[in-house]
Amino acid sequence: MFVRTACFFLLSLAAGSALGETVGEVDTVFKLIGPDHKIVVDVFDDPKVGGVSCYLSRAKTGGIKGALGIAEDKAEASVACRQVGDIRFNGKLPRQEEVFTERASLLFKRIRVVRMADAKRNALVYLVYSDRLIEGSPQNSVTVVPVPANLPMPLE
Prior knowledge:
Layout: H1 2-15, E1 21-29, E2 37-45, E3 49-60, H2 63-68, E4 77-89, E5 96-103, E6 109-118, E7 123-132, E8 140-146
Antiparallel strand pairs: 1-2, 2-3, 3-4, 5-6, 6-7, 7-8
């Protein structure tokens, strides 16, 4: 019973952890045993706004803990979202919605990207931050994608 529960738990963690596609990475600290510490750059497409892609850079802890997947990554991340094609809305947009999440530790920390709609300026604002079960981090990054003036945002 314990083995079955542990396998289910590990599979559910793996299923929710990879929503982006890795563009590249650079090593920042050499580790004799296990992978090096690095900065990873991932890209993901906004699921409700076609033509917008977001690039997320974040620290990835290496070493033995990193190799085993039990290391806690630093809360530092940066996001840059850009228009990469014609903007198309796939349904109504909430004024604020989480569009990306990835774990930054085995259980307690996640990196999150939230899209906010600024209707007055006809712009999409993307915020990256990390949260933790006990205490989140105030470190964050923000980017804005302007929506063409002739394309009103379909807000809920």
